[in-house]
Amino acid sequence: MSHPPNQSSLRPVLLIVMGVSGSGKSSVAEALAQHYQYHYLDADDFHSDEAKAQMAAGVPLTDEMRVPWVHNICAHLKDYAQKNASCTLAFSGLRRSHRDQLRQLPFTIVFVYLCGTKSLIAERMSAREGHFMPASLLDSQFASMEDSSDEADVVAIDISPELSQVITNCLHRIEPFLATRAVESSQPGVD
């Protein structure tokens, strides 16, 4: 098991696993949390009952309805940051404005964008059980996902391989960010 650098002198880390519903965010974020011994959070847990019911009925949320949701996530993460606790977060990250809000938090942040074709994700969504998000909302998820290719802290990961390989690929892409963070903290005059 890989251990992150000594966190006493570093900002805590926030690994945000993003993508449309059904891309594997929860599975990957949980695996990364276990690997790094970070706290795991699922953004779905911060939706109101009304929002969950609306999505379960096949009606996508409006941007206005997402505002209190993102606010609640940020407030919760600030508590973890104050405790110098690193986290992983499974979070759709559809809107750049939401990603920018998370960037304001006092963490070293890496976004892991799980990318896949609509047909592959639809197939996976139809196979899962007990989730409030129906496959019928997949089109709206893809339509809402704003491009992140020009955001330096976003790494894109292809989800077509087996989950274990996807996780391995994530770790390879995350490690350089964590290594840079450790080097910067060891230099004089760097907070």
Automatic annotation (TrEMBL):
Could you tell me which InterPro entries the record lists for this protein? P-loop_NTPase, Therm_gnt_kin
Q: Which residues form a coiled coil?
A: none
Cytoplasm as a keyword?
A: no
- Which keywords are on file for this protein? ATP-binding, Kinase, Nucleotide-binding, Transferase
Q: Is Nucleotide-binding found in the keyword set?
A: yes
The EC number(s) attached to this protein equal 2.7.1.12
Q: Which reaction does it catalyse?
A: D-gluconate + ATP = 6-phospho-D-gluconate + ADP + H(+)
The record's family statement is:
Belongs to the gluconokinase GntK/GntV family.
Protein name per UniProt: Gluconokinase
